[in-house]
Amino acid sequence: MSNRLLLTGHGALAQGMRDAALLILGERDDVLATAPYTGDLDALTAEVDEVRRAADDGTVFIVTDLEGGSPHNAVLGISRDPRVRVLSGMNLPLVLALAMQLEELDGTTALDELLTEARDGVGEHRLAAAETPTDEEDF
Questions:
Q1: DSSP type of residue 80
Q2: What is the tens place of the pLDDT at every residue in 51-74?
Q3: Do 63 and 6 touch, CB atoms closer than 8 A?
Q4: Residue 38: its H or E element
Q5: Which of 6, 26, 33, 121 could form a disulfide with 14 if both were Cys (CB 3.0 to 4.6 A apart)?
Q6: Nearest-CA neighbor of 22 among 88, 119, 84, 100?
Q7: DSSP 10
Q8: Which residue, among 37, 35, 96, has the nearest Cα to 61 in the 3D structure?
């Protein structure tokens, strides 16, 4: 099976996300990114379709940055193919989880755990404020 993970989104986000993921995972030829999207839907659709055809009998997992955005809407057209899965809300935890399990996944695999892992990677974090000494502590 030759599964592929394809990242797409506005501007150069997809390539930057791929670069970040491969910095952690090492070089991979099954994690791909579309060219920077600047409004040419035909070029994007052709690029995505080429990846789908190259996947042979494998599944293509397409991750977009924004549900309802132009790149997301453009790839929805090929999601009728049972070998294509489209996910939105791209973040690095999601990309890493998909990439690390890519060969075990298929067109029917439930992705709930991966999506939960991606959601759990989003949060607010703050260090506790340093305590300032009172006058009494100075003596």
A1: G
A2: 988 888 899 999 999 999 999 998
A3: yes
A4: none
A5: 33
A6: 100
A7: B
A8: 96
Give domain status of residue 8, yes or no. Answer: yes
* Strand order through the sheet with 60-64: 31-33, 4-8, 60-64, 84-88
What global pTM score does this model have?
0.87
What CATH number does residue 10 fall under?
3.40.50.510
Buried b (16+ CB within 10 A) or exposed e, 64-81: bbeeeebbbebbbebeee
Domain assignment of residue 34, given as a range? 4-105
* Nearest of 95, 80, 78, 109 to residue 1 by alpha carbon: 109
Asked if residue 24 belongs to a domain, the reply is yes
Give the type of residue at 85: R
